[in-house]
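User: Quick one: structure for sequence A, then sequence B.

Assistant: Sequence A:
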Amino acid sequence: MKSHIGLRIAHVAKVPIPREAIFWQIGCECESFNLSNAIKRYGKETNDKARAKGIEDLTQWINRFKPDLFFTQKGTGSMTPDLVEQLRQVAPVIFFWVDWPRDLNPHRCAVALASDLIISESKAAAKALSKRINREVHHVPAGAATHISFPVDPVPKLACDISFIGTNNDMKREMVHEHLKSHVKAHTRFWGSRFPGGDVRGDDFSKVVASSKINLCINRNTEGDFSKRVFTIMAAGGFVLHERASELFNLFEEDREIVYWSSLKELRRKIKKYLNDDVARASIADAGHRRTIREYSWIDQHKKIVNLAIKELAL
């Protein structure tokens, strides 16, 4: 089996995540190409002539870089099954799914089906996609970007008892938000799109985590799935109170590295318990942080992805 050291990976995607840097860190050679931006230089993405010119630029880039492997994610509109087939004439293609099962549309399923290897960082999404396209979908757990998420000093103006960071995009999150405001005597702040606190990005994420006694995580309305922010929060040293999710049980040990809740009654009880126990909170936060750094960093995730590719694709 070939080592991942020196493996040339072409990252073709429209996602502002620095995977290129992570692949370099694990010893691969990687370059990224944003096909969407390439097409837009010549016109709208829906314009056939602009698309043809953008693909010409992609082809020139491929001929220069000479990749051993293509890595694409999410199946955005600029990536099509026909284009995947063209890429496969040069090197195998990985389709990486990072989102929730409900975001799987027919276009994305078709792009996945055309690819050589399909991977998801969500076990629930892997199961849903596999059932939809009748193909094996491998699961590689998500990880934390430890180069930008790490323990920092608390910021007094951000201090609170309970914080939630996420998007207010389903009824359950809004319901929990309203319930805590009405039934829990604690300073609670909800951050993110369409929440009062607004978006939290970059260095501010770690500052909010450090300034919160309890970092609350609420599942999406998807059976078994969980908030991937749990890794980022733990990398920043935060204490996590997470809604129970079956996929998490094999990743973190309950009441030692993380604390779970199911009902609102249990949530209120756990909040009261841990707001009044600084020692337990600090111990659990430290254990979760150490487990994340040891096993669930982006570097670990990308090593697993590349090693899986080497094994499954006989690179």
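Sequence B:
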Amino acid sequence: MESYLQLGLPQVRSKGTLQHVFNNCDALLNAGCYKWKHDSVLREIVDSIPRRNWKVVADLPGFTYALPFQADSAWRPDIVLTSDDHHVHMIELTVPFEQNMTAAHDRKMTKYHKLVENARDAGFIPTLWCVEIGSRGLPGKNWFDWVKATKLPQSVTKNCCKIALRCSQVIWGQKGGHWPTPPLLLLCGEESL
């Protein structure tokens, strides 16, 4: 029988716990599984943002990514919303294992602190939102404040939670197998969640 390495498949070398497979496996990380999950949730968020109020830039295919002010290229929040009155909302999404949400949030807030200062120095009124949807489909404590402040439809929470969970289920099913790099997982207009 051929080994995982001979077949070019991700090799999971751990006990295969949920936390390991959903968020901490180097083989699955290198295969692009976690980016696919993150970007699937991110796409749902971007599709929910009302365009009449914001100019939207997202770190997704199909968007030209450019911050409206000068900043270090290492700082690249997932979504940047800019209004005509110089408000800028920078949104950084993380899809961690639920027990790691606080640490993920704190790490992202620290990382993007200087970016907020750069925006302010450039004459913008910045707001940084570091938000989390857990791998098992649970929103982080900051999620609801962000949805309310940005006036997103309540359905965005259900949809993002469902996408994160479905993506994790697909990743679990593919552990140790071939990762085909599927298109982003979309709900395709499902009404009842």
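Residues 15-174 form a domain with the Restriction Endonuclease fold (CATH 3.40.91). Residues 101-121 form the longest helix (21 residues).

User: Thanks, that's what I needed.
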